[in-house]
Write a structure and sequence with these properties.
By secondary structure, the chain is α/β, with parallel strands linked by helices. The chain folds into two domains: 23-141, Rossmann fold (3-Layer(aba) Sandwich), CATH 3.40.50; 158-232, no CATH class. 47% of the residues lie in helices and 12% in strands. The strands form two sheets. Strands 2-1-3-6-7 form a five-stranded parallel beta sheet, sandwiched between helices. It starts with 22 loop residues before the first strand and ends in a 6-residue tail after the last helix. The relative contact order is 0.13. This is Response regulator.
Length: 238
């Protein structure tokens, strides 16, 4: 049962639109990553809803019953592993729970928490996305007959990347140390890798290095702030 069960018949998936009739809740703080998911769901026939944090996701789940929940592991108010464990232990359980992350070792942690599958970031290949989701669904929710695997590469809207830079800029204004700094480095690194912004990805990785501190930290923050402002001013190519 999806969204408002019993009010309208659920259409059956087809080989061309293998997720037809399903609702996907994407829990991710990056608008750029969410736009990629939006496009892949659109091409697959699924409806999409978005939550940008654990609190928002829980509010959604009090009202709606999605078929698939895709949870990013790095969220502003906690780990996505918390939500995965909650969903895995709930009754009735959502049909499919997938984790998403670009961090090494994240897949094992997600599966241990109860996820049915894992999407490695950046996820931009439509065929891979469809196959990963379908592998977690029961046979009756999959399209009947042969299905041609698609190899389309999805390209999110660059405006969504700029919106993520606005968010990062706001975080920089309020960040100096501690968990907020860890989250900033994680957020920027994930977004930059998804957009293949190598320079910013390296700066974010350095910002999150264990040996950060003192003058070195100030220099790293200044470097990241400068790169973010360049992207906001469209002076650096993605």
């Amino acid at each position: 049962m999806d969204d408002l069960p019993g009010l309208t018949p659920i259409p059956h998936p087809t080989p061309a639109r293998p997720l037809l009739g399903m609702t996907v809740l994407v829990v991710d703080d990056s608008l750029y990553a969410c736009d990629a998911m939006r496009l892949m769901c659109l091409h697959s026939g699924a409806r999409i809803r978005r939550a940008d944090c654990l609190r928002s996701a829980r509010r959604h789940l009090q009202v709606y019953r999605p078929t698939v929940v895709i949870v990013d592991l790095g969220l502003p108010d906690g780990s996505g592993l918390e939500l995965i464990a909650e969903l895995a232990g709930a009754a009735p359980r959502v049909t499919s729970i997938l984790a998403s992350s670009g961090d090494d070792g994240a897949e094992a942690a997600a599966l241990a928490a109860g996820a049915d599958g894992f999407l490695a970031k950046p996820m931009t290949n439509l065929g891979v996305f469809q196959s990963k989701v379908l592998a977690t669904l029961p046979a009756e929710r999959r399209p009947a007959g042969p299905r041609v695997a698609r190899s389309d590469e999805i390209h999110p809207d660059p405006i969504a990347y700029r919106d993520d830079m606005v968010h990062a800029s706001n975080l920089l204004d309020d960040t100096s140390e501690g968990p907020a700094l860890t989250y900033l480095a994680q957020f920027l690194g994930g977004v930059a890798r998804a957009a293949e912004d190598v320079q910013l990805a390296r700066a974010a990785e350095a910002l999150g290095a264990p040996e950060r501190g003192g003058t070195a930290l100030g220099a790293r923050l200044a470097q990241v702030a400068g790169l973010v402002q360049e992207r906001l001013g469209n002076r650096a190519a993605m």
